[in-house]
Amino acid sequence: MVQAINRALAEALAEDPAVILLGEDIGAAGGPFGATRGLQQRFGPDRVRDTPISEAAIMGAAVGAALTGLRPVAEIMFMDFVTLAMDALVNQAAKARFMFGGQRGVPLVLRTPHGGGLSAGPQHSQCLEAWLCHVPGLKVVCPATPADAYALLRSAIADPDPVVVVENKALYAMKGEVPDAPEPIPIGRARIVRPGRDATIVAYGAAVHWATDAASLLAAEGIEAEVLDLRSLQPWDEAAVLESLSRTHRLVVAHEAVEAFGVGAEIAARMADAGFDELDGPILRVGAPFTPVPFARELEAAYRPDAARIAAAVRRTLD
Amino acid sequence: MVQAINRALAEALAEDPAVILLGEDIGAAGGPFGATRGLQQRFGPDRVRDTPISEAAIMGAAVGAALTGLRPVAEIMFMDFVTLAMDALVNQAAKARFMFGGQRGVPLVLRTPHGGGLSAGPQHSQCLEAWLCHVPGLKVVCPATPADAYALLRSAIADPDPVVVVENKALYAMKGEVPDAPEPIPIGRARIVRPGRDATIVAYGAAVHWATDAASLLAAEGIEAEVLDLRSLQPWDEAAVLESLSRTHRLVVAHEAVEAFGVGAEIAARMADAGFDELDGPILRVGAPFTPVPFARELEAAYRPDAARIAAAVRRTLD
Amino acid sequence: MTRMADPLALLRTMLLIREAEMALARLFADGEVPGFIHLSVGQEAVAAGVCSALGPQDSVASTHRGHGHAIARGVALDGFFAEVLGRASGVCGGRGGSMHVADLNRGMLGANGIVGAGAPIALGAALAHRIRGTGGVAVAFFGDGALAEGALHESLNLAAIWRLPLLLVCENNGWAEFSRSDTQVAATLSAWSAAYGVPHAEVDGNDAAAVAAAAAEAVEALRRGEGPRVLEARTHRWRGHFEGDPQRYRDAEDAARAAGHDPIARSRAALLAAGVAESALHAAEAEARDAVAAAIAGARAAPAAEWADARHGAYAPAES
Amino acid sequence: MTRMADPLALLRTMLLIREAEMALARLFADGEVPGFIHLSVGQEAVAAGVCSALGPQDSVASTHRGHGHAIARGVALDGFFAEVLGRASGVCGGRGGSMHVADLNRGMLGANGIVGAGAPIALGAALAHRIRGTGGVAVAFFGDGALAEGALHESLNLAAIWRLPLLLVCENNGWAEFSRSDTQVAATLSAWSAAYGVPHAEVDGNDAAAVAAAAAEAVEALRRGEGPRVLEARTHRWRGHFEGDPQRYRDAEDAARAAGHDPIARSRAALLAAGVAESALHAAEAEARDAVAAAIAGARAAPAAEWADARHGAYAPAES
Ligand SMILES: Cc1ncc(C[n+]2csc(CCOP(=O)(O)OP(=O)(O)O)c2C)c(N)n1
Ligand SMILES: Cc1ncc(C[n+]2csc(CCOP(=O)(O)OP(=O)(O)O)c2C)c(N)n1
Ligand SMILES: [Mg+2]
Ligand SMILES: [Mg+2]
């Protein structure tokens, strides 16, 4: 996936001189996960800019630059560190278009990795996207495949408003084709990963793969689960979820983030309203339990949602 | 309500020498909303401590002090400014007990006002409590009355873990009795504000009053709505909501915060699972629309949820 | 050579700010202004002087006490008043109000409700000017209390490392809300700037000509690519932190002392001494009064902001 | 009078840190250590020297590169290794790992995965010591790269204003991850401290005795109530930013230079020169080796951390 991100950044830099990158060790070192490798050599240190360890100023500078004619793509090394950049993101970037009466947007992108599986511990593994989805003025996307990572990042950079691209760390190493001339993926559009008629599993990011694994497990039992990859979390594709639900009448929402007050809550809540008449069983969510992300391998493995838990949820809603 | 808060702080300071207050202009000036008036004179500038404009350090210092034997009660002047204090709150305070293997808790309290109605504009009106409810290790309460403000703050200060007390600015001026010897209110327990059999309205903070007004409107139409004040948002009283729902079979959740990805999403999502068999109609949410809080009086009035919208939601779920 | 600001133009700007803010004080007392407002009465010379050194391509990030900056930057009074009064014709459609007056086409990146937040925004604007080669510079105004925010430190460091055309202007009025700022900030601004190797200049913030000269010098250095600068203007806050502030924390003496340093009186006296006719000054005063009165009348007559226009305003309209 | 640290005790501490970290390097290479670890090999003198100046009541907030601080603070090796290897018997039950080793009963407030976050925590600990009258002081370790974080600036300012017993110890190893820190931070630490009126001392961070003496002096000043201090220890990071770091950004020369400043070799030579018998040093080395080997054996034998124990660990158990 890292190569797909790299390509998206390289093409955006090549196509539009207003695009710049900034972040910690993204330049000379090519980024902590290699997503920006070679870009500084190619586009120069002015446009691919190493910053000090100053998340608040990085984000604030991105806002100022975006208001002054650039399209900055900022990287925050771990999503856990957006805690340090929330003012610029929430009080400035997200609000500028609205509170300035529509004068101008803030075309910035924040790339930041979330998720566990690497024993990176409680301060380097969090999935905090639900916070950002709650903020009017921000958009949030989360790719599950290299091709989506490419296309969603291109859409994010092209977008006139601030977009947070949440990348799942554990997927960085994932291999996958990106076509030579990829189709654009509009922000806000989900995709059916696997069709099915018995239940709908809505997921995003790494959970998409657990959901498809769960669907395989279930298929062996004769249960045909449809898997939907949200791709975008804000806005999210309510119509697609509703459409699927109206065929399957059962819904499970899965993500790596903490279940309570997570993204799944919104999907479930909307469907408990707009989709109520379609529901033949309870809406189930699969997410992380209500603790910080633990460090030890055994703890983290027990903590993280997986295909088995998703399959169990599908069985329960079919009960 | 401000007097009730003041009394709770004064009593806690008097009873426990480990309690200290810190925040911007809370000392000599008595706090921007008067909640700490007179306390510095009474307990001295060491324990009622004016800070510089350094929200990150205020919160971080509260964590360090709480780990070192104090029970700090920090104030952040507007909830909008917790954006600047999120690292200390989320990555440090919330995680310390868990990630240090249960060695010790972080008995701090953060008091912070949310909400609109004062034309304070997009950066001084936000309701961001859903963020904090999503963070394992934090507790969150939000009082709707002076008596609750008193009792919940006392419970928060006594709690061995970090508690965020969200105070609704528009309620600061609210008058109301606090008994001479008030009953403690445990964190996590809701209360029935008004009983009813036709529908349940779950609310917190200022929305509790809109909900009771809505119930009055509905009563005139022969609809008896039960109003539940959550009081605590994390943990929240799932049993009480479920119990009410199992009598009324209809649910509306109302709050001032933005509806999308708000606290109401979690309540609705849980009830779409645990309460599914009890539901005779869609779960409706009433919250703010998906824009920043606007400034102009007319805009803000249109933006904020109110009794009429809650009543309309109840009617719709009964349809 | 440093461009000389026209002293009469400086006075005009200050008069406009003063008239506008004193009118707002009255409107506020009468309940016509929603929310809360922070006036810069007494500090006009800083806004007027600094902005006189800027061109149309430059960027300004302001503070909660930003009326003066907006007016000095040339934001139209009509849109300004309509905004602060929450009308549809406000420069921000009535969605932002006093703390968010912005006019991006004039490089006014907005007042800001978050103390310290303007500095990183201006830093980014300076970066954009550099990368885009506009020749522009960016200015961040901030208060003496704001120096306690980490954002100031991060911004100065980044500007210094990157040698960006950023001018940080401290309006040192001695107060941070209800507290003396010297009880809040241990660093002097000169030592703080020096620690980062950034030149610092101090100027009498009640002397518009002096501010203008100092700002012009700094801005020229920025345009020459010499890296960031800090300009500290000592001035006085005449009124409360916000309108309606009873100022129990402040003795009458302090307020009186403040009023003894009227930048407008000073500028007026200097102009008279320089031979400008009193009638010209009266004309300028009348002009300011009339402009403000007209803007207020316009704002009052303007329709209220409408939710139907605002409700989809968080995002760009979808292309179709 | 400043208490003299026992040079042999300092060496013992450094040996323990070195042995422990080199063992971790091997264990990591063998895949026995989950996650990522940042070693302080080469920097041991700072941890040993500073902690030698502290008493049991004092508090220490550490960094992502915190093994040395934990060991110097007396965290038991058994619990330390079990933690870093993610075992149930870890000092944090295997829930935190390398970046979160904490031992609150020893005033070790934790390693920290957030750069700069230790400073405000130590600030709060210093405040608690002051208010509770414990006579204790608080130390925050931080790296030269961390100075770019606003939290450092806010913390120093608050400590200065409040004259708290806070010692900020900069482990200046020249690097912030993969970048030279002098490309990231414009301020020198001495000028930065001076701006806040806080005394700053620089010390050779490869000389444990010198660090110990400087720390002891600073801590005594803190205990006398003289307000905060900054201690800058110049040292070298021998290894990569984290284990497994290919260090493509660093030339071999720099790494070699680093290894030329071995604080352990230096301390050893000084002890020999002072007449300590080589056998005593061998004994100390053997002791460290044995202690580490035993702790590793213990950790390996310890049961894995169990989710059933952790799952309700975010909050205090409900009273009943
Ligand atoms: C982040 C943040 N913290 C606190 C406040 C509340 N507040 C508004 S103005 C102010 C004082 C600012 O002092 P200074 O920077 O000196 O500006 P002045 O008001 O003197 O112009 C404070 C604390 C805020 N708006 N934002
Ligand atoms: C807030 C935050 N930003 C970024 C990082 C990633 N990171 C970890 S260590 C480090 C460099 C720290 O440099 P320095 O403070 O000099 O410490 P050193 O590694 O040299 O000991 C960075 C950028 C982090 N952990 N936390
Ligand atoms: Mg001030
Ligand atoms: Mg370093």
Describe, in plain words, how this protein is organized in 3D.
With 319 residues, chain A is α/β, with parallel strands linked by helices. Chain A folds into 2 domains: 2-171, Thiamin diphosphate (ThDP)-binding fold, Pyr/PP domains (Rossmann fold, 3-Layer(aba) Sandwich); 191-318, Rossmann fold (3-Layer(aba) Sandwich), CATH 3.40.50. In chain A, 38% of the residues lie in helices and 18% in strands. Chain A has a 7-stranded mixed sheet with strand order 2-1-3-4-6-5-10, with helices on both faces. The longest helix of chain A is centred in the N-terminal third of the chain and has 14 residues, at 2-15. Chain A starts with a helix and ends with a helix. In chain A, 73% of the residues are buried. The model of chain A has no long low-confidence stretch (mean pLDDT 98). Chain C has 320 residues and is of the alpha/beta class. Chain C has 12 helices and 7 strands. In chain C, strand 2, helix 6 (150-162) and strand 3 (166-172) form a beta-alpha-beta unit. The longest helix of chain C has 24 residues, at 278-301. The interface between A and B is large, with 54 and 54 residues. The complex binds thiamine diphosphate (2 copies) and magnesium ion (2 copies). One magnesium ion binds next to strand 4 of chain C.
Number of domains of chain A: 2
- DSSP strand (E) fraction of chain A? 15-25%
Q: Structural class of the helix and strand makeup of chain A?
A: alpha/beta
User: Regions of chain A with pLDDT < 50 over 5+ consecutive residues?
Assistant: none
How many strands, what sense, and barrel or not for the largest sheet of chain A? 7 strands, mixed
**Number of H- or I-type helical stretches of chain A:** 11
Q: What is the rounded Rg of chain A?
A: 19 Å
Amount of beta strand of chain C: 5-15%
In one word, what is the shape of chain C? Answer: globular
